[in-house]
Amino acid sequence: AGMSMREVMEQLTEGRAIEYSITFPEGWTSFKIMERVGPNEVLVGDIPAIPLEGAILPNTYSFQRGTTREAFVKLITDAQTRVVKEIWDSRAVDLPLKSPEELVILASIVEKETGLTSEQPEISGVFMRRLQQGMKLQTDPTVIYGIGDQYDGNIRRIHLTTDTPYNTYTRRGLPPTAIALPSESALRSALQPRITGDLFFVATGDADGSHRFSKTYAEHRIAVRAMLERQARERGRP
Predict the structure, then answer these.
(1) What is the number of other CB atoms lying within 10 angstroms of the CB of residue 26?
(2) Which of 6, 48, 64, 174 is 20 to 30 A distant from 208 in Cα terms?
(3) Could you count the other beta carbons within 10 Å of the beta carbon of residue 112?
(4) Is the whole model's pTM more than 0.85, yes or no?
């Protein structure tokens, strides 16, 4: 609509096709992405199997009408494969990650722990130190992923104490798979951690979603108490 005859002729003679796009945000799951790919009316063909968790690179992807769903899924998984390989090949040799798959797993946890790109290297640094020292990661997003559809928005003590393959409060090391789609920045942060000596972090409660980092458990308890007191004050506001 609104094109001049000259513009129409140029598009026809140059063979330019109309392109459509789908955006996949960071932190989504593979299942949620396939829920968007399946009903898309521009794509054609059968819906392929859901890719492994973390196997898709969050981004905006362009495609033409008639593209098969299988070809589109290959496009978005190949993009992740290329980025992961490039980042993995540039890794430091002294990090406690044994494979590209472990890189994606750690990056997915970093992605879910903070919405601030600037914090990702420090979050990664905390988890890297914990892995190096044999500490449990104790990260809520892995527990939530293990709960699945039973998660109602609140983590309770029973969730933290009930053992599942994804409960990093009961098991040491990384969970068996990624828990979300990590962004390229999270992937890079997982292999370029900011090691500061911090072993703990908790949300500050600020609107920007930032965290307060601590080197000792005693410092962490003070930070947690401050966060809880702030929440109590805000709940008490008229």
Answers:
(1) 19
(2) 174
(3) 23
(4) yes
